[in-house]
């Protein structure tokens, strides 16, 4: 830990200027974020976070975190690099793109194209040019990003190699840390994943990526619900009641024996949200459901998808595709021409999500 005592038993104390102490006092006394924080530089906000953390002033810390998040949230990597005064040191555009494309749950010790050239492993977090003269601890830097949203943290990975390391630590801690345990540092150490945070961040396809990339993933979490990943793998998704007739217009997903079996894999009070069921299937579902080859799509063993001659997908099927298509590097063609998804009225947001998912997959050359 950065605040561990020295051999002489002395704890390092950050230097807090009188002006900063005055701002911190105002922050402690204010019910809402003080207006003067809007005038603080990025480096000053980091210093205020460190001071608030050292003084154990949660109210001041909350104000500083919110102020910093308001400056960063919604920015893309290039904008963040300029705002933070950082230098692009990835060495090539390919390395930068690889850093931005990796899953949000990638831990700090995960080797990527961005760090593959270093025999010593991931780069150490260095002081940023915008933070010159500000000896802020690594713990303070992580705390400062406590209210920055997941999408922006993912964009921070494309700022520089040091910001990549910091963003990985913050994201992996937020998504995969188990209570009382340190954040995982390698893929094999990740056993739990907060899938709601990823879905809320507009990254539902990371459920499928997790199923492919995390060999020891055991549980998915969603506000009071917990999914047993191993149990989901055993569910026959295509199982239905013997007297059930296939629908030719709007198929019902997760009905009959298949739904009962899937629900038995989820602990929690009440009915799990549809998004969680879809995430569970995308992550660990075997075989196929309603003509969607879930396992083959997750394993990236499909180059063409054609629903032109199949039963209609329905909006739930379209949602499931949005969870799977972005992780399919081998996919080059998808045909949805006989699926009039716009007929689903209030579910137009689903159509938009599917369109966004198709856009994430840069390998698609044919979409109908």
UniProtKB/TrEMBL annotation:
The lineage of its organism: Eukaryota, Haptista, Haptophyta, Prymnesiophyceae, Prymnesiales. SUPFAM superfamilies: RNI-like, Skp1 dimerisation domain-like. It comes from the Eukaryota. This is Uncharacterized protein. One of its GO terms (biological process) is ubiquitin-dependent protein catabolic process. Gene3D superfamilies: Potassium Channel Kv1.1, Chain A, Ribonuclease Inhibitor. Transmembrane segments: none annotated.
């Amino acid at each position: 830990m950065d605040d561990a005592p020295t051999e002489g038993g002395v704890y390092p104390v950050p230097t807090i200027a009188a002006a900063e102490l005055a701002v911190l006092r105002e922050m402690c006394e204010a019910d809402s974020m003080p207006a003067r924080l809007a005038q603080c530089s990025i480096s000053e906000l980091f210093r205020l976070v460190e001071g608030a953390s050292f003084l154990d002033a949660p109210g001041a810390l909350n104000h500083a975190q919110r102020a910093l998040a308001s400056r960063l949230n919604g920015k893309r990597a290039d904008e963040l690099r300029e705002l933070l005064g950082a230098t692009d040191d990835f060495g090539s555009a390919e390395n930068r793109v690889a850093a931005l494309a990796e899953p949000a749950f990638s831990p700090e010790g995960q080797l990527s194209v961005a760090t593959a050239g270093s025999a010593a492993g991931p780069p150490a977090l260095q002081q940023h040019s915008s933070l010159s003269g500000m000896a802020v601890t690594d713990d303070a830097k992580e705390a400062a990003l406590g209210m920055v949203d997941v999408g922006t943290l993912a964009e921070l990975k494309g700022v520089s190699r040091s910001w990549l390391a910091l963003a990985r630590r913050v994201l992996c801690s937020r998504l995969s840390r188990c209570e009382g345990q340190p954040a995982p540092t390698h893929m094999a150490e990740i056993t739990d994943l907060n899938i709601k945070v990823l879905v809320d961040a507009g990254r539902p396809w990371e459920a499928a990526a997790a199923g492919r990339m995390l060999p020891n993933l055991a549980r998915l979490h969603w506000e009071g619900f917990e999914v047993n990943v191993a149990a989901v793998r055993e569910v026959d998704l295509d199982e239905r009641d013997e007297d059930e007739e296939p629908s030719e217009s709007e198929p019902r997903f997760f009905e009959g024996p298949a739904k009962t079996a899937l629900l038995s894999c989820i602990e929690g009070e009440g009915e799990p949200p549809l998004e969680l069921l879809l995430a569970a299937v995308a992550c660990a579902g075997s075989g196929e459901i309603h003509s969607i080859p879930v396992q083959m799509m997750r394993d990236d063993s499909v180059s063409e998808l054609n629903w032109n001659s199949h039963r209609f997908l329905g909006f739930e099927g379209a949602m499931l595709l949005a969870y799977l298509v972005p992780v399919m590097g081998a996919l080059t063609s998808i045909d949805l021409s006989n699926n009039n998804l716009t007929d689903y009225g209030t579910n137009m947001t689903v159509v938009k999500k599917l369109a966004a998912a198709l856009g994430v997959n840069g390998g698609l050359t044919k979409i109908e």
